[in-house]
């Protein structure tokens, strides 16, 4: 019945489709190149861009989809006036950086992205209002209509709306949206998005990335619903939030099951109501039963507004089983949460799935493989993703999007986003657990925030800290590690493992697995693909079954849930059970279902839409001799050379790997793709390789594309090995540094940097303290931005312990200041205080040491306090 009601509303709503902006044509859009694309990408077009009703739990008939072609331009971030002209077209709602946007550009922190679209005023009657909705815009959005600023929104993962009635014209309304998004360079929660993708961090998604739409409502209208299933009380707690003057208004809610009314309630808007649900048909992964709900707003008993919705009745809690072990119980029954860590990325759309069918496919795939749980990892999905979880039946652990750093603004944004996330996702029965902190990433006030989340939503489990064992600043007392949380939770790669048993808490394994299995021809970037461990495809099924047998032992000992990393590969992270393009499964689905059946029987049949092919378990490297022979006989096309070079490296034929890779690199021409840049970086091992000159000529591009200064590091490694190491590998050597400097100067900045670094470390190792201090000051003066805070701290502490010269101490204090730019680390503040103290700046030293004591973990406070006491007494703090 739910499907029938939803479809009825949606058919009415789709009578008005998106309108192309003036001067824009669907024919101008073209998907950009992507190393991989999913089968759904070919279904994307400007005339049919995510046309489904975007808010399935509050459906109205009168709406208009604004997805499709918009104009865009990029200006300096300081430009706050809408531009007079636009440079191109973009397909909304695909992120700027995605292939499906038709743009595929990176938005930098010092830039502002502008969108423009024109549309006609929707049909209205009387005092009707028109609302403009945004599903999500990352990160800061300012919205203008017909030249007037109508509002702003901060937060990249939650929806917002504006009443635009008074600003509308009959025709050619000009909508402009300005976006700032520093990605990982600001105080904004950004999840796994970074400007320089690498390892567990992926390509950013800036700008509009969920549906934009218009909705026509009456002057007083239903603005939101809050639904809490109360299974024991046989009722649904319901609040109908209403916008406008509610004097004289009432609300009525009717719940329907299989065509029959099972409960009704009437009352005032904006009050807590109780809708009877007698003998409730409970929702679970095995039986995802949903009740239909119709909510009406009445004025003098006349219906003025109606929304269609649904709800599920289920109860999640921590209880003791028959053996006295704390477990996760669903609807009064122990239910093992067998889950996967779902990142929610797509090779063609990044944060945005190509189609609704693609969005649904991921859920069907995970269920088909025999899992009953998804941990949605540091991302909040569009409403339709949760609708599919509700409808198909899968438990969801919903992460908060990580706090980005320890600044006050970052914490403010994090807490605001958490509140908005819980409010926005509150009504989905599939969500059974909120996850607050992950692995100590910018963790703070854990107990306070866990309790605040429990107060916001006492109906769900709260996981205050998943992967606590990865938190270096974690409390020593086990009872403090998960304070106020409903779970104890560790991560173990590859694992499995089990978290500690603590009273009142269930034990879960929040992440484990991470086994890389390569899928040739289905990889984002073969040169950089990685996993926590790597095994051949032929061995994976056996390995996975073996790991799960161990997991079963832990389950029998008290483990209540486990989250495997992960269902799908993501960019270079090749830990998925399925390839990133959703085409290849690495263990046949029947085997996976059998393995997982030891924990929970499959909760559904394999979905008809779950179409994948089994991985080829034959070792492609067995063909190496044949392929090498073809190469020696003259086969030299680029794709062949690229794959053969990788194969030569895998079979440890290094001479041929160098020869073949040089042949391949010799064919490359700028502009280079990220995959080609990664190949060049990987296979360049000496200054004689063809890639060396390309690395030198394209340093900045490669550093930007691959992240972590990979080109500079590779160049410095080669320069060091060829020009410096031969003269310094003997610990007692006395190198001719002038001669070495002359040789390294020919390589420019990388040569200068590695020269100064090598010279600094050589004097440090030789304990030649004066020369060390002088050289280190040269090194820091030119390369401070590239030296880790820990290394800077080590240099400063070395000077403090071994030298008394005022100049050296003053320089060391400056190095400390560079280290402290990374944040208020108490160990670095302590070093700074000691250097200042030895330099005779007692007052400044005491002030900083007091700060170190205040910020120090409990285990270090006494050490710092002893130093502070010595400073105040005027005693030496050095040996």
UniProtKB/TrEMBL annotation:
Statement: the UniProt record of this protein carries the keyword DNA repair: no
TM segment ranges: none
Keywords: Glycosidase, Hydrolase, Signal
Domain Glycoside hydrolase family 2 immunoglobulin-like beta-sandwich residue range list: 220-314
Family, similarity comment: Belongs to the glycosyl hydrolase 2 family.
Pfam families, alphabetized: Glyco_hydro_2, Glyco_hydro_2_C, Glyco_hydro_2_N2
Tagged with keyword ATP-binding: no
Domain of life: Bacteria
Protein name as it appears in the record: Glycoside hydrolase family 2
Matching PANTHER family: BETA-GALACTOSIDASE, BETA-MANNOSIDASE
């Amino acid at each position: 019945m739910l499907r029938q009601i939803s479809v009825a509303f949606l058919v009415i709503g789709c009578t008005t489709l998106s309108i192309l902006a003036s001067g824009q044509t669907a024919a101008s859009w073209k998907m950009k190149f992507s190393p991989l694309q999913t089968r759904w990408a070919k279904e994307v077009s400007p005339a049919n861009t995510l046309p489904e009703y975007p808010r399935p739990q509050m459906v109205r008939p009168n709406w208009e989809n604004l997805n499709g072609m918009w104009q865009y331009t990029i200006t300096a971030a300081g430009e706050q006036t809408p531009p007079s002209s636009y440079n191109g077209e973009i397909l909304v709602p695909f992120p700027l950086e995605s292939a499906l946007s038709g743009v595929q550009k990176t938005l930098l922190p010092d830039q502002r992205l502008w969108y423009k679209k024109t549309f006609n005023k929707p049909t209205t009657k009387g005092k009707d209002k028109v609302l403009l909705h945004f599903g999500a815009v990352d990160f800061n959005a300012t919205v203008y209509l017909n030249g007037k600023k109508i509002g702003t929104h901060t937060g990249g993962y939650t929806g917002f709306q504006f009443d635009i009635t008074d600003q509308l014209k009959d025709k050619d309304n000009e909508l402009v949206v300005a976006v700032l998004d520093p990605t990982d360079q600001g105080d904004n929660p950004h999840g796994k998005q970074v400007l320089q993708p690498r390892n567990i961090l992926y390509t950013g998604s800036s700008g509009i990335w969920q549906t934009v739409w218009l909705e026509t409502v009456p002057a007083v209208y239903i603005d939101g619903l809050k639904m809490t299933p109360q299974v024991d009380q046989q009722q649904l707690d319901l609040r109908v939030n209403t916008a406008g003057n509610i004097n004289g208004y009432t609300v009525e809610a009717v719940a329907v099951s299989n065509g029959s009314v099972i409960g009704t309630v009437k009352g005032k808007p904006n009050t807590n109501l109780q809708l009877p649900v007698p003998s409730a048909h409970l929702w679970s992964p095995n039986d995802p039963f949903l009740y239909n709900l119709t909510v009406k707003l009445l004025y003098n008993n006349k219906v003025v507004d109606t929304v269609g919705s649904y709800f599920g009745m289920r109860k999640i809690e921590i209880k003791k089983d028959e053996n006295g072990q704390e477990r996760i119980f669903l609807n009064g029954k122990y239910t093992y949460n067998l889950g996967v860590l779902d990142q929610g990325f797509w090779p063609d759309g990044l944060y945005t799935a190509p189609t609704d069918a693609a969005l649904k496919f991921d859920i069907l795939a995970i269920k088909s493989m025999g899992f009953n749980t998804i941990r949605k990892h540091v991302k909040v999905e569009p409403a339709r993703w949760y609708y599919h979880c509700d409808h198909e039946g899968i438990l969801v652990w919903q992460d908060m999007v990580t706090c980005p750093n320890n600044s006050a603004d970052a914490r403010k944004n994090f807490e605001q986003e958490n509140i908005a996330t819980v409010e926005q996702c509150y009504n989905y029965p599939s969500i059974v657990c909120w996850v607050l902190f992950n692995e100590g990433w910018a963790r703070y006030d854990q107990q306070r925030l866990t309790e605040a989340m429990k107060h916001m939503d006492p109906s769900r489990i709260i996981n205050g800290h998943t992967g606590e064992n990865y938190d270096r600043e974690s409390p020593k007392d086990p009872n403090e590690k998960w304070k106020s949380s409903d779970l104890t939770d560790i991560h173990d790669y590859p694992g499995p493992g089990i978290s500690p048993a603590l009273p009142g808490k269930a034990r879960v394994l929040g992440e484990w697995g991470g086994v890389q299995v390569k899928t040739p021809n289905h990889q984002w970037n073969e040169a950089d693909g990685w996993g926590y461990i790597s095994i051949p495809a032929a061995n994976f099924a056996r390995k996975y079954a073996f790991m799960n047998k161990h997991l079963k032992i832990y389950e029998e000992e008290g483990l209540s849930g486990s989250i495997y990393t992960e269902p799908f590969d993501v960019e270079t992270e090749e830990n998925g059970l399925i390839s990133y393009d959703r085409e290849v499964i690495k263990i046949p689905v029947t085997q996976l279902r059998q393995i997982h059946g030891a924990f929970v029987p499959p909760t559904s049949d394999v979905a008809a839409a779950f179409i994948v092919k089994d991985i080829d378990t034959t070792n492609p490297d067995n063909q190496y001799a044949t392929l090498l022979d073809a190469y020696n006989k003259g086969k030299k096309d680029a794709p062949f050379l690229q794959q053969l070079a990788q194969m030569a490296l895998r079979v440890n034929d290094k001479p041929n790997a160098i020869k073949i890779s040089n042949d391949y690199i010799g064919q490359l021409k700028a502009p280079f793709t990220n995959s080609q840049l990664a190949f060049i970086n990987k296979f360049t091992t000496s200054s004689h390789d063809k890639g060396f000159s390309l690395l030198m000529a394209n340093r900045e591009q490669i550093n930007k594309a691959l992240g972590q200064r990979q080109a500079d590091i590779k160049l410095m490694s080669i320069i060091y090995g060829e020009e410096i190491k031969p003269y310094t590998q003997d610990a007692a050597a006395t190198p001719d540094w002038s001669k070495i400097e002359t040789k390294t100067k020919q390589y420019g900045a990388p040569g200068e940097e590695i020269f100064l670094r090598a010279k600094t470390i050589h004097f440090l190792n030789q304990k030649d303290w004066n020369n060390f201090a002088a050289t280190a000051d040269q090194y820091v003066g030119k390369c401070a931005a590239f030296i880790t805070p820990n290394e800077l701290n080590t240099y400063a502490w070395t000077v403090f312990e071994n030298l008394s010269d005022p100049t050296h101490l003053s320089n060391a204090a400056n190095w400390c200041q560079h280290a402290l730019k990374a944040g208020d680390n108490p160990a670095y503040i302590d070093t700074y205080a000691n250097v200042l103290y030895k330099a005779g700046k007692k007052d400044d030293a005491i002030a900083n040491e007091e700060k170190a004591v205040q910020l120090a973990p409990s285990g270090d406070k006494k050490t710092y306090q002893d130093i502070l006491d010595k400073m105040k007494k005027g005693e030496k703090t050095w040996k």
